[in-house]
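User: I'm writing a tutorial on reading structure tokens. Could you give me a worked example: one chain, its sequence, then its tokens, then a sentence or two explaining what the tokens reveal?
Assistant: Sure. Here is the example chain.
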Amino acid sequence: MSPRRPADRRPRYRSMIVAPQPDAVEAGVRALAQGGSAIDATIACALMQGVVDPMMCGVAGLGVLHVHDTRTGRTEVIDGLSTVPEAATASMWEGMFEGECTDGYGYVVRGAVNELGHGAVTTPGILRVFEAAHASYGRLPWAELFAAAIERAREGWAVRPHVALMFASDERPYGRARMADKLAYTADGRALYMDGEAPKAVGRMVRNPSLAATLERLARHGAEDFYSGELAQAMVQDMRHHGGLLAPADLAGFRVRLGAPLTIGYRGRTIAAPAPAAGGIVVLEMLRILERFDLVAMGHNSPDYIRTVAEAMKIAGRDRERHVGDPDVAPAPVGWLLSDGYAGECAAAIARGEKASLERATGESKDTTTISCWDENGLVVSLTHTLGLPSGVIVPGTGFMLNGAMNWYDPRPGRPNSVGPGSRRFSSMAPTLVFEDGQPAATLGAPGGAWIGVAVLQGLLNLLDWGMGIQDAVMAPRFSATTNAIDISNRIPRRTEAALNAAGYAVNRSAHSYPFAALHGITGWDGVLEGGADPQRDGCAAGI
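And here are its predicted structure tokens:
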């Protein structure tokens, strides 16, 4: 007698949300339970992220939101990537340039003025993203979305392991400042996040009544207060006092970009990802190349599989360096990069054993976070948002840190991502949606700087080529090729590492079990919602 198959007892959820912070997921579930849409839940979750993960994101950050409405068939990207203040000039730091950060995340300028302090601040865009998304897709009143974040800011929260890790990080070996220097840059920062000379450790409480008051203002007056009201005035006054670049016109003039995502076919599904200046082009180019290989026949994370996928990573990284920047300054050749002809040429070179050269792939900060949400009416959302690098600047009495995203811009004029008034730098953010037979099937997103694209790629391959469930797909051992070396998780066997060495690759073994960005996503195969949260970021999924 053949054994009986166990019954399928997976919980059936009407709606689901997943994010790297449990408090933030709880805020999103609260919004869903109150009858909110996936956008309402995403905004409530994101606002809470700014409270409990304050170096990753916040109301003075930037981000990209990707949304699909099954009822109308509408899919759009709301791009709130920050812009360089108009007071900046292309050559203002040219004579202070000291090099690229050794890990590819930004540029080293003498005195760290592009990273630490008021000169590092770009025009924030995330609140305009929330405003636009809520206007189109929200069901709950705007003010209700702030309630959970206000409560947590006022009552306090305990420092989690990943937050403590970020608080204590020392990035001087890479050419960036210590996080402790940013936490302690202002008196407000020292009071909130420091215990004497050291950042607060795991379990220590953070209470931020000033941020609670700021969120209450935004709940009452809307995003406009941040861009032209009293909050804007407070920020600008602080900028003037400390020689910052941000001015009233920068804030008042900021607008989100609305547009359709880029789409490609991949093994019978449709993959949608945001266009430049966001990072979907990198993910889609890699998929176009890899569709020409029988990846499953190679074996998951086998030496041949890693070599093949890593070469696609390097090719897409090289093309991004050469061709992708601010689309208003130098539009990327998207059609060519995603064409059958170019994908075929690249795949043929990989099949011949050729090695692409990628000496340096510059990227942005790993200080980023993500959310995916799917509601009972078929509204599906993927959001990635960030402070870039935290600048250390907390305007007195406001409780939130301003972004330090000027570090992303090349101080050398005439390059695709050079400093320029009003310019938007390429971002690796790639909140991605998967469709099957015209219906949404999965979301994927990740924080992690230049690793975002390679992580989202592997999550998609795990789902679509290997048939993994979403939790297995985001937890499977990953690798990365954002330079000529291949970086591998410590869960990839040493025999695989040895085989790659024998094939002529330099291989760097990470000390971490879950390195290279932090994937989070939701699948809806057969109408069953399931969430996956990467263990790297203390995250979780929850549904109602």
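What the tokens reveal: The first strand starts at residue 16 and ends at 19. The longest helix spans residues 303-323.
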